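User: Show me an example of a complex going from sequences to structure tokens.

Assistant: Sure. Here are the input components:
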Amino acid sequence: MSVLIKNVLVGGKERNIYIAGNLIEAISEAGGIKEKVEEAEFVIDGKGKAAIPGLFNAHTHAAMTLLRGYGDDMPLHEWLSTKIWPVEARMTEEDVYWGTKLACLEMIKSGTIFFNDMYWHWEGSARAVAESGIRAALSAVFIDGFDEAKPKEQIRRNEALYEASKKLPDRIIFALGPHAIYTVSEESLYWVKEFSERNDLLVHIHLSETGEEVEECIKRYGMRPVEFLEGIGFLSSRTIACHCVHLSGKEMELLKKNDVKIVHNPVSNMKLAAGRMLYEGLKKAGLYSNIALGTDGCASNNNLDMFEEMKIASLVHKAFSGDPTSMPAEEAFELATRNAAKMFRLDSGVIEAGRLADVVLLDLKKVELVPNHNLTSNIVYSANGSCVDTVICDGRILMDGRKVEGEEEIKDKASEVAYELVKQ
Amino acid sequence: MSVLIKNVLVGGKERNIYIAGNLIEAISEAGGIKEKVEEAEFVIDGKGKAAIPGLFNAHTHAAMTLLRGYGDDMPLHEWLSTKIWPVEARMTEEDVYWGTKLACLEMIKSGTIFFNDMYWHWEGSARAVAESGIRAALSAVFIDGFDEAKPKEQIRRNEALYEASKKLPDRIIFALGPHAIYTVSEESLYWVKEFSERNDLLVHIHLSETGEEVEECIKRYGMRPVEFLEGIGFLSSRTIACHCVHLSGKEMELLKKNDVKIVHNPVSNMKLAAGRMLYEGLKKAGLYSNIALGTDGCASNNNLDMFEEMKIASLVHKAFSGDPTSMPAEEAFELATRNAAKMFRLDSGVIEAGRLADVVLLDLKKVELVPNHNLTSNIVYSANGSCVDTVICDGRILMDGRKVEGEEEIKDKASEVAYELVKQ
């Protein structure tokens, strides 16, 4: 497939972008690449639009779209035990499939071309992603609850999923998903580390999300969570540690030493009152380019709009630090693009010839983007997902003029399974 | 004018809403008010939509849309003195007119039907509001800078504007706008108080926005800002105090005693790192129903989307208090509707027969609103302004199917004047 985007703003200048296969082949002055006009199978008029890299949602539980608005404003444990866990226990692969379809639709409509997922019924998520056309790193929830009978079954399942994933499109990355240190035994964490090393797999884990997690860890292991993981040799440049709210200075150093990747989820942390990630501290520890942004699941956000996440990330650090220069717009934007692409080892996150063709077009006529003194500022502080007009992922047009194929069916079916799930 | 909205969800039930003149005349079961179908000049199909009260933006400087994204991520004083003030000094009435037109357009597109404004060139704002069809309380910036020559001129101007405002549509409320206690002398504040009493006018003031303001006040007057205003008899139920970030317990009591109204601007307070309003403290002081929400101007937000403001308000109090039950969705929604309507003495903010016809229809097919387990939760935590399909204000349809009259011209002209302003 080949796509020509004509007269679109790239870094403030009017350009043509020529996409061949899944790569950006060339970017030229407007009016250039004339010979390509006849070659291109699809021609998009980019006039009045700006091309930006597609956004990355670096931590979510996609199918939780089904639980959007089902439980809010509750104490954490009551929320989990009365609202979330009982419904999750009833979920089938088909439910997860429709929930993930809805999530992919929502992400495409808001300019996100990749998500890093951890959820139940991996096969349901994988099927939804394969159909949707976006990219994802998918991990199955690995929990053994310190029950000696469990690790074997979890290990076998992960080995089988890894094998199965090889037959799926390249857009789908198989990752390991040890849920957290308070739900997974040392033995299982050790297997994850070994298997990830052997197969060069990313490892997606919740880490130091709440104060209780840190306290429990100190009780169980006599040290803080990052120290414990360092002690068992778990940490590496493949580790994607989500939340990282409660870290000591020493723990930040250990994360840096092991080149661990960090996903910041400001909205979820605020909504659940989990605490605040020490962004400035992590930057000082040299970890800036290791940080990406995620929405977390829809039950604790309650949407998947990365524009909103960038804004709130920037605001929360200004507010808590008392410094209005903290996390400027350029940094928030990099967290959601370039940094995340590096984290997931994808040659994306930047609009440049030779890179993967993950291109989002913003409609500069949207009132939130008028006037356009500074596009990055408008993107981070004023836009929302509805400013996205066109989404191209891996060279394929997933949304054009805000139209996504099959949208009505996805919303209808996902609603149906969601209502059925909570009815019981 | 009469409007019939058929088969629309009101409080979870399918209803018809019949609007006659500027009032909601009747709300009946779907299929009811049959006799009105033929009478109604406009019939709107409400199927798949929910009717909610139009939102109130209780503190802004509307024409600052012209400066959206012009200066961000800077220390407060540098931002004001190098970016905002020099441009404001160059603004003409025509600039303010186009900036306010752009703001009205943005607010209509995001379901806001009222704003409380304080800005330069009052006449420009008033002209824009008169044309736009939305409601506003408009105050001119009253600053004397403690210069003895200034109060007279400011007083004369306000008296003249008040007279002029009587000829404008009822939708426009004239209010007094003493900027703040650090820019307005005691003498002028005293005049404002007298004139507001005599003419029953609302008084729009910035109060205790930053720590510096409190320190300066203690230096100048030997007491804290609210104590100072209480001392000169300034406070009343007509006082609309914006920000109220730095309050002592005693000051909260004084606000309660005088039935002062409070506008919370969480995004602006976060972006400028001004501090956090003590929402839970104000609630304990009995002030809950006196609080509304505002975006502040676009230079410190950088949009006018009240859906976003509701979400961030709720998040910030959960995050800072460590209590995930703080400011539940229902409260955030009330701050932006019922509480604000009361504050501005408008019989609006609720969808009920007999009330002003300020009705917003949400498109329940927007992916952010799917599934719909709880509409209020979806509105506060998941929606953004783009979920609004139709806006009716004062009985007049201002947006239908997201189309607003004259939209393209407003965006073009406002951009033009904005670029011209910052060029110099």
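The lines above are the inputs; the final block is the predicted structure for all two components together. Chain B touches chain A through 69 residues (CB under 8 Å).
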